[in-house]
Amino acid sequence: MDKLLLTHYYYPGTDPWKNIMNLPEQEAFRVAAELAAAHPETTSFYRFADFKNYYPLRKRADEYVREAFIRLGGKPRLPHPYSFVLAESDYLKAWFDSEDKIVLDLSDIPDDQVSFTPGDSCALLQQGIEPAVLTKGMLLEGIRECGGSVNAFLEKILEGRPYIEVQLWDRF
Asked: Edge-to-edge strand order for the sheet containing 134-135?
């Protein structure tokens, strides 16, 4: 099986290891307003311009995925994960309008600190769809069942969604 990489895209000049959801709510709203005002032309900051709607959805998605991951044996260290994607995503690369990214090797991430959802967990919940949550073991088994082909697995599981969202439940 090929090496599996995880990618986190971020806007230039921002700290990719800061998650606005890990701030106290009032401070999160203040920071979101500052980011939205500083970047009105940037697609990735729209969520901060609409933070009154984004915040409760993101909170609900993180709680849903975290609880499902715990039921599957995960031991998340954070209340809100760092969001990555499996492999690369042209969609997110364009969304952040940047070449800036962090790339990690999945083999370096402990099994109990990483979960996966086929598709964006927030977008799925917004559509009334409960995200399927996979463990690292479930992901690897699915790839093996597809003859070791990551592309075949992605084609089978994504059902038209642009990427597999990866939740890192600790900083690596």
From this structure: 101-105, 5-9, 82-86, 164-168, 114-118, 134-135
